[in-house]
Each structure stands twice: as structure tokens, then as C-alpha cells.
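Entry:
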Amino acid sequence: MSATTKPVNQKAWFLILPVIVCVAFSAILPLMTVVNYSVQDIISPERRVFVGTEWFASVMRDSELHEALLRQLLFSLSVLLVEIPLGICLALAMPAQGWKSSAVLVLVALSLLIPWNVVGTIWQIFGRSDIGLFGRAMVWLGIDYSYTGNAAQAWLTVLLMDVWHWTPLVALLAFAGLRSIPDAYYQAARIDGASKFAVFRYIQLPKMRGVLMIAVLLRFMDSFMIYTEPFVLTGGGPGNATTFLSQYLTQKAVGQFDLGPAAAFSLIYFLIILLLCFILYNWMQRVGTASQEGAGHE
């Protein structure tokens, strides 16, 4: 090392101290509290008994948890399969420039501004067969529609509500990715006589890979933690048709006041989301790398 090399100033690390303090109070301390509850049997506020991993074993044997997990996985996968392609198609159809582009962006983003509990209330009215537009349309088509009495229709209504609410987020992210592509790529494609599908396959889709990865992860995590909308719309019913993991956890913690099992399940819930996001991210990375290598060979 040269004798004239100046020492690195490490004082900039002090700038992140406020962030560390905020994260400690908002995330780390509550997490440690949950960990503490998960290994104790809280008999009363003054009396607690250490039980080790008993609550974890009890929760993992719960058949209702298994059903809620399968229901949650099916819902989250359905959300991705519908919202990602639909958001890309919507982004491709949006005007690229001018006042029309600004107007369409505002209109598309309107549903994102609506609070989650209001979304559930809107669809609660929208799906009613007596006064709701969607419910009356189903009846007019000859479909005996009832999101409060039919389990399959309730599940599909919650899915449709989520698609209506969150597809604009995917569309806005995809639109931002499309606008970041330099015009030189399109000019080269026109010179080569490439079709619209070829432009999408070899130019637009690869360049959107980063924002689409963000969209997939955001939508997966959010859909896997969905609570307010189905709670307001169906209350988890009929039966347990729309009782997802978050509602199951709430029933344990608030409804039954089983703090130990609820805390253990909270940690399991957290680990499930973390693991699935890790798997999904790595899979998307491998798919993106393989597609780039294939395009390079072609």
C-alpha cells in the first residue's frame, strides 16, 4: 500500500443510525417479542411456562393450517398468472407520449389510491345481485351468482377484486420498463423488418425483466399476506372458502387468544414467505439468464 494513501472516512455510517433505530423499534423488537411468546405458554399476565418447540409442532399438525396454506398458494399463483400478463398487455396498449399518455396513467392508477377496506366495501356492493352491477349482470346472464353462499364464486370474486385492484401496479411498472428502452432498438428492429411479436420477444420482454421481477415479488408477497379485502367482502366464508393464512392467524391470536400458537404460526408464516420469495427470485433469475443465452445463440 502506498504511504500517501489517505485513510477512508467512515463517519458516513453515522447517517444510517436513524434508519437502524427505526428498524429496531418497528421490526426487530416486535419480532423478538413474537419469538418470546412462541416458546412460552402464557397462562396469565403474571405466569408463563417455557414450552420450547411445543407450539411449533402443534401448529404444523393443524389440518386447518394445511388447508389455509393450500388455499393461499392457489390464490397467490392465480394472482400472478392473471395480473402479470394482463398488466403487460395493458402497458403495451397505453399511449407512449402526449397528453393521452398522462390521462391514461392517471386513470389506470386510480384503483391503487383506494384503501383496502374501501375496496372490499365497493365489491361487497358491486357483487350484490339486487343492487350491484356485477351481481345483476351475472343474474341477467342466467348465472345463479352469490359470493356469500357459493364457495367457488366467493373465491373467484376475491380473485377478481384483487385483479381489479392491483393489476394497475403491474401495468405501471411494465410501462416504466417500456419507456426506458432506447429508440435505437426499435429503429434497428424496423430496419431488420421484425414483426411486433419479435420486437416484444427479443427487445421489450428482456428489457422489462428487471421491473417484471419486482412486480412478481411485490404481488406475490402482497397476495400471500392478503387480509382486509376478503375479510370485508366475505368474512372468510362461506365456510372457510376465503379464509387465507392471515385470517387464520387473526382467528388464532384475536378470536381464540392463543398467543403461543399464534406467535409460533407468525414465525412459520414469515419463513414461508421468505422461502417462497427466495425460490421465486432464483427461478426468475435462472429463466432470465437462460433466455438471454438463447437469444445470444440465435
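The CA atoms of residues 253 and 262 lie 5 Å apart.
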